[in-house]
Amino acid sequence: MMTANVLKVRELCKSFGPTKVLNGVSFRMTEGEVISLVGSSGSGKSTALRCVNFLETPTSGEIEVMGDAVSAVVNEHGKTVVHGAHNIHNFRRRIGMVFQNFNLWPHQTVLGNVTLALLYALGKNKRDAKEIALSALSKVGMADFRDRYPHQLSGGQQQRVAIARVLAMSPKIMLFDEPTSALDPELVGEVLRAIRGLADEGATILLVTHEMRFARDVSNRMIFLHKGEIEQDGTPEELLRNPASDAVARFLSSVMPLAA
């Protein structure tokens, strides 16, 4: 039985001035798949993630989410022109993103932070919004903290609330951009366990992370980026056991103590 592609990325390029950050990145993602984007700092991982929901506008290339496509082309004047821009709104309704920083409303409780978008973006009534929010908070182990404010939470707890806020919106794809990078080491595990729980429940996840052991254990595929290009795309076992290039091998040799 074939599983439908929920995300297609074709020939994605992104430049900041003269600096080319992405150079022809292409991959597909199916429903329920967990893909980790890995590679050295500066390889283009986070930029690729941000281009998927047009937080960054690609210089050129095409993104397709569940059949809706948005493409960027460079015109004769060297300027990027976006086609299908009306679909960007659909992208953002279907894609949820968890950032490095938590971005919680400091004046709202945990429950308030999760229900706000349900009330104002999706038009849910208060009773339904509360029920959905508590269900999402339960999945990340934060329902008992519903009445606390962000300043009363640890960094790991705040990030789990941020995950619940995205989860409550029922996204088709969840993007995670280095979700543990702003945390103290002792708090990393609780966030990774929350993400693993979502993966075990069948969530479709595109993850940028330096946590190689976690990426190996949770992913169906790992995509290694090097200087803005895909150097290797395969299962964790393929990538870790049979690096496709010297760049992949060098990276793995530097992180193998973490991935052992």
From TrEMBL:
Record's bilayer topology term: Peripheral membrane protein
Superkingdom, taxonomy of origin: Bacteria
Main subcellular localisation: membrane
GO MF term set: ABC-type amino acid transporter activity; ATP binding; ATP hydrolysis activity
Signal sequence bounds: none
Cellular localization per UniProt: Cell membrane
Domain ABC transporter, chain residue ranges per copy: 7-252
Matches recorded under Gene3D superfamilies: P-loop containing nucleotide triphosphate hydrolases (3.40.50.300)
Entries under InterPro entries matching the protein: AAA+_ATPase, ABC_ATPase_HisP-typ, ABC_transporter-like_ATP-bd, ABC_transporter-like_CS, MetN_ABC_transporter-like, P-loop_NTPase
Recorded GO CC terms: plasma membrane
Record keywords, A-Z: ATP-binding, Cell membrane, Membrane, Nucleotide-binding, Plasmid, Transport
Recorded family membership: Belongs to the ABC transporter superfamily.
Protein name: Glutamine transporter, ATP-binding protein
Origin species: Sinorhizobium fredii (strain NBRC 101917 / NGR234)
Lineage: Bacteria, Pseudomonadati, Pseudomonadota, Alphaproteobacteria, Hyphomicrobiales
